[in-house]
Input
Amino acid sequence: MRGMGHDQGWSERSLQVDGRRVAYRVSAPVPGALPIVHVHGFAISGAYLMPTARRLAHRAQNVVPDLPGYGRSERRDYTLGIPALASALREILDALELERVVLVGNSMGCPVALELAHAATDRVDRLVLVSPAGGVHNQPLRRAIGQLARDGVRESPRMARIAVPDYLRFGPVNTFNLFSELTRFPSLDRLLHAPVPSLAVIGSRDPFMAPPYRVREVGRQAPDHITVALIEGAAHAINFSHPGELAHVIESWLDGVEIVDDPDEPGFTRVLQLPRDR
Output
């Protein structure tokens, strides 16, 4: 591992995965707490996840990697698909000697986290899926591209400072290939069969998400260990736009207390009551 800098208790380091350099950000250890690992979306680095990760650093060590081929990690000759990214994430956990973690994914990071949870259930204590992408609501591809365009104008302008350079570096061909795979990924089915307790957090202004009534319909099929929270006013990149509210929701859920709105933070949170068939 090689140090790459230091910022208010956070270090930027790198490790080797499959013979290539992978960059990551890590906060100070918190004895007795399971580490929290954040998994970014497609074509972008983990930098936009830092606002939420910083809010959670007081309760656990937080790790924010740039998955292979993304951000500051070494570029690859081809685009890794979602199962391969999940395998790479497992290798990152192995290299960091993290036996069991809480995963917090955003967008494409949700399918990646779900894949890892299904493949290595013993390594994942809980899942937090923020704005999970993929599946029927994002099909066909032209519909998903339109959703991406609508989301672009709903996000904070500050997000563009991170996203645009990352997208340009990732390249249009890689972006198209991975985005196409993402729209076909059965995220909903994987969530419904999540093997560990899972929290899904969605934004009311996220064009990638199904409308709340559809989420409630899906809830009829969901097991009892699935919780869904809605943040009013948030679009897709909740980790960047509403870090205080999101961190509050995550901490409440991890602590097993009722999820209620934090009046001191932007956005209004409510838990969607999921009707059950049973």
Q: What stands out?
A: The radius of gyration is 17 Å. The domain at 2-271 is CATH 3.40.50.1820 (Rossmann fold). Confidence is low (pLDDT under 50) at residues 1-6.
